[in-house]
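Aim 2, interim progress: modelling of the fe (ii) ion-bound target.
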Amino acid sequence: MAEALYNRLYRRLEPVRWSLADIRFDAIDKAKVSQETLGFVKVNCLLELSSLYATRMFLRDFREDADFCQFMSIWYFEEMRHYLVLCEYLKQFGMEPQPEELPAYDAELKEAPWPATLAMHWCGEVRLGGWYLRWASLVDQEDPVLAGIFRTIAEDEYRHAQCYEDFMHRALETRPELLADFLNTAKWMLVNPRSDKHPTTFAEGSADGLAVSDHIAGYQAFLARLQDTATEEEEARMERRILKTLSRLSGRELQSRADLVRLTREKQRSAAAPAAAPAADPSDSADLPSAR
Ligand SMILES: [Fe+2]
Ligand SMILES: [Fe+2]
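Predicted structure of the complex, ligand included:
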């Protein structure tokens, strides 16, 4: 019996974990930090709080998967620490969110099939890693402390993406037909990104039809900065990374979004009509990568 992923991921993440005490809040040159940047950090901080709503959703929708639910304890801890470190940063300026204002941000996420949720959050973590690196370079001159915080969080987000990928890989070992869902969700995340496609901006996923971001005052200014500073190169880098992983998971080399669309249609067709499907192409489900 293979070792639970939680056990493996715990050991993998423990030695690279950073500490709040590592952050040099006392080195911030407050006079150099603009109100615009602080407003951006405040929204960013509240978006990190959304891991609370996501964790409730994960524990509910993945209840059959004890291993994944155990992993949630790591993910939730690390995401809440992103919230905390940004709170502590804002506190230096007297702008941290107050406990009594937090209930207004709460969101109830709708029940959804877990394979799509898993793939959506995997893509979301990859995208977020890229965003944080971009934000770090944008504030490097303004405040190296904030730039360092952003880089530290970026590394966490990329590690989370790797964890989600591991769970997708493990799911395919026993249920290769789930590849159609993973491909379809990744395709959705890549097409028309509008520079803000992330689980926190997904209104259809919330019970009240409002995205997590819709509850946050100042989100429109945050979004404008996100879109104004986005580059095609960053999106292309993310797409390459997603396609590389999906190539590993599918055993089929995907070089473009068109390749992804083609393979998605193919897998959806065979998932919809398994009895009528022709003899499977061995390259479709074979040669899945071994666990790392
Ligand atoms: Fe985060
Ligand atoms: Fe994350």
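The radius of gyration is 20 Å. The CA atoms of residues 31 and 142 lie 10 Å apart.
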